[in-house]
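Form 7-S
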Amino acid sequence: MLQELEIKALKGESKISRLKIKPDSKRKPLKKPEWIRIRLTNSSKVNELKKTLRSQDLFTVCEEAQCPNLSECFNHGTATFMIMGQICTRRCPFCDVAHGKPKSLDKNEPSHLADTISKMSLKYVVITSVDRDDLRDGGAGHFKECIDSIRIKTPKVKIEILTPDFRGRVQKALETFNDSPPDVFNHNLETVPSLYPKVRPGSDYKQSLNLLKSFKERHIKVITKSGLMLGVGETKKQVIDVLKDLRSHDVDMLTLGQYLQPSKHHLAVE
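Output:
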């Protein structure tokens, strides 16, 4: 009987070993300013939420990416849910999510997600995912199933999806959302175009812009949104140019966040 080979998920140094442009792990990290330092807590509410997530086989990007704001968000009963597993098909050097061969999709995940959102009494949820270049639709169909399940279980909940770029599958992915669009469609550009080879290898700046614009053309009344990390070597002028590009592609909202280096093997803060 044939057995499926288990491929070990790669993180840290092993994850970025094959990248053409590698982070300098010997570079001394910049000292964090006092205003950005937080005190990690291990409250009962945080532990309770983690227990609820594990019981439903759910994961949050807050945990997988080692977000420093995890305790603050969890203590307020909010989280960004990460669907389609914990293993990504890309090797972005700023991100601490593992790279490797993903497992098959969990068919029960949409219903488990809807049940958890109901138990948490949330009013607004964000659903994101790892990149799934192994799937024919890039995972768009699974996003749709999650949206449908949530609206059946908790119809008043507002849903934001933060999607990958659906590389090579954009039209097929967008068609999937024709009958079940989210309340907010979010796709992060992450950085300025000149830094894509270093920050987002395997992704394309113009393709990401066109994904946002194409969705807006199909769903004029749905809010489109994107995000940028600051602190990976960009200039102020480059950021302003990206803002102009976003506006010319009919993007409604933008988030700007400070990049923090997950480990010495990831991109350094500049």
